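Handoff note, outgoing to incoming analyst
You'll be picking up this chain. Sequence as last confirmed:
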Amino acid sequence: MDTNELKRIENIMHKYEYAKEILETQIDVMIKNFTYQHGYNPVEHVKGRIKSEESIKKKLERHQKEYTDDNIIRYVKDRKSTRQNSSHW
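Most recent structure output, in case you need it:
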């Protein structure tokens, strides 16, 4: 794998980290707005994650794909996720 490919992969991972932070901020604002309007917070916990580079490599190996930026985008659909937990619903 050449240096340009590694740089593209690093760029992808940074973009996912930024997207996770933006999503977490938007969820936080929605929770605060709901709390202000209704007087209680229905969300107990919010957690976001970005799949680790090692986990991405393993997933691509299981699918017999090379570790490239295109394959990460094409075959690894669970690169990022956010979970909200609530006992009210």
